[in-house]
Amino acid sequence: MNLKEIAKIVELMAEHDLTEFDIKCDDITLTIKRKRSHEGPATALVTAIPNMQPVATQPPIVAPVPLPVAAPVQAAAAATAADNHRECIESPVLGTFYRAPSPDADPFVNIGDHVEVGQVVCIVEAMKQMNEVTTDKKGTICEVLVENGKPVEFGQPLFAIEPQ
Question: Residue 37: which pLDDT band, with cuts at 50, 70 and 90?
């Protein structure tokens, strides 16, 4: 993992108002934590710790980075689903939301479609990995809560579903 990739992660954290991010890649564990200040800009603490080396011989790399504080992106979507007694299908990872397997293909699901448990409803791309999102609920898709190609965060509602 290089500094450009770490900077991109920090940028995505700010964009999606995330306070903590952990990833394990090869022999490196990367932890990024942000503290928010209501009176000033947020800051991030980036720590990279090699898994195979004792901490005493390999000190962590620490670099404070100022980040803008963003508004929560999922509150309105969750409120919409709750007001209508609907349930949400949420993003399992931070990434980019895609409704179809390719740009010229039909969406996996549309409003009004009936879905079964385990059915693929979309893809979330995270670090160049395409993650199929499946539903754990049986029901009818009532609303698509995210625009195609837009970034999503972990746990963000993607679809409202009327359970059956």
Answer: very low
- 130-145 CB burial, b ≥16 within 10 A, e <16: eeebbbebebbbbbbb
Contact (Cβ atoms closer than 8 angstroms) between residue 56 and residue 50: no
Domain final residue pick, 67, 92, 108:
67
Residues 61 and 94 both lie in one domain: no
Return the exposure string of 72-93: e unless at least 16 CB atoms fall within 10 Å of the residue's CB, then b: ebbeebbebbeeeebbbbbbbe
The backbone torsions φ and ψ at residue 76, rounded to the nearest 5 degrees and listed phi first, read: -65, -40
**Non-local CB neighbours of 3 within 8 Å, separated by 6+ positions:** none
Pair (84, 60) in one structural domain:
no
Judgement on whether residues 88 and 138 belong to the same structural domain of the protein: yes
Question: Which domain does 81 fall in, by range?
Answer: 75-163
Q: Phi first, then psi: give them for residue 9, nearest 5 degrees.
A: -65, -45
pLDDT computed for residue 15 by the predictor: 77
Are 91 and 58 within one domain? no
> Is 0.70 surpassed by the pTM of this model?
no
Is residue 118's pLDDT more than 70?
Answer: yes
